[in-house]
């Protein structure tokens, strides 16, 4: 039995930031690779810290396709929410192209909804709400497109692990070793249920002691400070403008309008995507691009149902979804 070929695409989460081993990072994807098959999976990690959906589409995807993987994980989008160039239409279009390319090649795709960075950082509401809208928009697009292409999809945006500080590194944005292991275990369970993972699941308990307080402070003072400075030049001016909009709508009692605009934007972004031609012998009405069950748009806003898509079975983790409408940031 040959080893499974697994390629990981994405940003610092998949690169393994927060799970140091030797002079580098390991992370959830490397942990998962060890349990995909016997012999161990042939694993290639193309993820790069700071990567956005554009980087995955234009740089990482061609390299991944050349490897002809059996399994490919695509976890990306958080960095898009932290840029002044955020555009849910472009993000959805890029993700659609990435998932479609792997699906055409017969690769099993792994995806996930991720936590809101504003909440993780503990930002005040007027600053956190715009970021929350952005992340919910990305999660909605990822979830809907995962349904479309039959991806193995993990709900990681909520749950006990998000609130458990033991799961997170000192920067509060990346999991620590324990958190990376949780992601690997949950993905392994989904893949095992789908008959893809045949090896042993990763261990839940950390292999190494957590970084010392002095080491964490040193990291925050160097890499963390550099990250903050970059975001101050990029995101902060726009975030302050969005906070002013948030305050103005709160004062007027019209905050619901921001949610309605947001829901409309994500609906239109999904509706604008082209639809692949049905396979030979496949019924044209076999599938449709939908907002997943539990992620409800406001009344009067929906993704048009007339857009047909290939009939795929999506492997989705059975976790309760928060009863909160998915919406991107309002303009």
From TrEMBL:
CDD domains, per database record: SGNH_hydrolase_like_1 (cd01832)
Any Pfam family matching the protein: Lipase_GDSL_2
Occurrences of domain SGNH hydrolase-type esterase (ranges): 8-181
Signal peptide location: none
Region annotated Disordered, chain positions: 301-331
Taxonomic superkingdom: Bacteria
PANTHER family in UniProt: GDSL-LIKE LIPASE/ACYLHYDROLASE, PUTATIVE (AFU_ORTHOLOGUE AFUA_2G00820)-RELATED, GDSL-LIKE LIPASE_ACYLHYDROLASE, PUTATIVE (AFU_ORTHOLOGUE AFUA_2G00820)-RELATED
Name recorded for this polypeptide: SGNH hydrolase-type esterase domain-containing protein
Originating species: Streptomyces spinoverrucosus
């Amino acid at each position: 039995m040959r080893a499974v070929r697994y390629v990981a695409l994405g940003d610092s989460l998949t690169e393994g930031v927060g799970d140091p081993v030797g002079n580098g990072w390991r992370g959830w994807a490397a942990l998962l690779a060890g349990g995909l098959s016997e012999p161990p999976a042939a694993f290639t990690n193309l993820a790069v810290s700071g990567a956005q959906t554009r980087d995955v589409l234009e740089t990482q995807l061609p390299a991944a396709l050349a490897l002809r993987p059996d399994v490919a994980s695509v976890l990306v989008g958080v960095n898009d929410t932290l840029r002044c160039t955020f555009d849910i239409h472009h993000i959805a279009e890029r993700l659609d192209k990435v998932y479609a390319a792997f699906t055409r090649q017969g690769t099993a795709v792994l995806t996930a909804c991720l936590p809101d960075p504003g909440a993780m950082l503990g930002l005040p509401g007027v600053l956190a709400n715009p970021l929350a809208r952005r992340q919910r928009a990305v999660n909605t697009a990822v979830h809907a497109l995962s349904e479309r292409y039959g991806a193995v999809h993990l709900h990681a945006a909520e749950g006990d692990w998000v609130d458990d500080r033991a799961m997170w590194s000192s920067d509060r944005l990346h999991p620590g070793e324990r958190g990376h292991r949780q992601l690997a275990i949950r993905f392994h369970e989904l893949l095992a249920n789908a008959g893809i993972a045949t090896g042993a699941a990763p261990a839940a308990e950390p292999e190494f002691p957590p970084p010392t307080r002095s080491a964490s402070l040193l990291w925050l003072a160097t890499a963390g400070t550099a990250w903050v400075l970059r975001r101050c030049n990029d995101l902060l001016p726009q975030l302050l403008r969005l906070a002013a909009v948030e305050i103005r709508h709160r004062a007027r009692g019209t905050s619901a309008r921001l949610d309605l605009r947001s829901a409309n934007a994500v609906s239109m972004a999904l509706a604008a995507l082209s639809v692949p031609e049905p396979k030979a012998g496949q019924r044209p009405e076999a599938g449709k691009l939908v907002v997943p069950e539990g992620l409800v748009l406001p009344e009067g806003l929906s993704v048009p149902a007339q857009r047909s898509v290939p009939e795929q079975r999506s492997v989705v983790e059975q976790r309760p979804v928060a009863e909160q409408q998915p919406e991107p940031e309002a303009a």
